[in-house]
Amino acid sequence: MNTTQNESAQKKTLDLSKIEQVLEKYKNARGALIPVLQAVQGHYGYLPEPVVDLIAERLRISAHEIVGTATFYAQFHLKPRGQHIVKVCCGTACHVKGAKKVLQKISETLEVSTGMTTKDNAFTLEEVACLGACSLAPVMMVDEDLHGKLAPDTVGTVIKEIKGAGTSS
C-alpha cells in the first residue's frame, strides 16, 4: 500500500464528527490552534496526519505550522501511544541513584526503546527530566501512579503487575 492509499484508508477509519464540532466552534477564533489540538488529542490520543490536514484547511494555516506547534509542546504526540505511559525520571536525584539502569531494565522488560511504543500498543516508554519526587529517587510514573525507590531488579515486578491488571479488566 503506497502512502496515498494508506492516508486514504486512515481517513476512512477516522470518525471526524467530533473534530468537525470542534472546528466549527473555533472557526472564526484567532489563536485557536492549541485548544483545537488539545481536543483532537483528547479524542484520538494523538494527532493523526489526516486530521492535521483537516485542521490546516479549516483554520487556514499550513500543516507545517501545526506540526511545528505540536512538536514544540511536549503534551502533543504525532504517533499513537500505548494504553499505559511509562515515564522514567532521569533528573539529577534519580540519575545519581541509578535511573539509567532502571530505564534500561524497563526497556528490556517491555522490549521497547525509549520514546517508542510496544508492538501490542500496551506501553509507551518515555524518559523525562523530572517527576517532582526526588526524595523517592529513582522514580517512574505509570499513567498517574508514581513508583519510587526503584532498582533494576524490582521494576519487572511493577510492569508484570500492570500487565496482570490489564488482563483482568
UniProtKB/TrEMBL annotation:
Sorted alphabetically, which PROSITE patterns does this protein's record hold?
A: COMPLEX1_24K
**Keyword Signal among record annotations:** no
Protein's UniProt name: NADH-quinone oxidoreductase subunit E
For activity, the cofactor(s) needed are: [2Fe-2S] cluster
InterPro entries per record = NADP_DH_HndA-like, NuoE-like, NuoE_dom, NuoE_N, Thioredoxin-like_sf
Family assignment from sequence similarity: Belongs to the complex I 24 kDa subunit family.
Q: Which domain of life is it from?
A: Bacteria
Q: Which UniProt keywords apply?
A: 2Fe-2S, Iron, Iron-sulfur, Metal-binding
MF terms (GO), sorted A to Z: 2 iron, 2 sulfur cluster binding; metal ion binding; oxidoreductase activity
Extract the SUPFAM superfamilies matched here. Answer: Thioredoxin-like
Cofactor note, please? Binds 1 [2Fe-2S] cluster.
Q: Does the keyword Metal-binding apply?
A: yes
Q: Which residues bind [2Fe-2S] cluster?
A: 89, 94, 130, 134
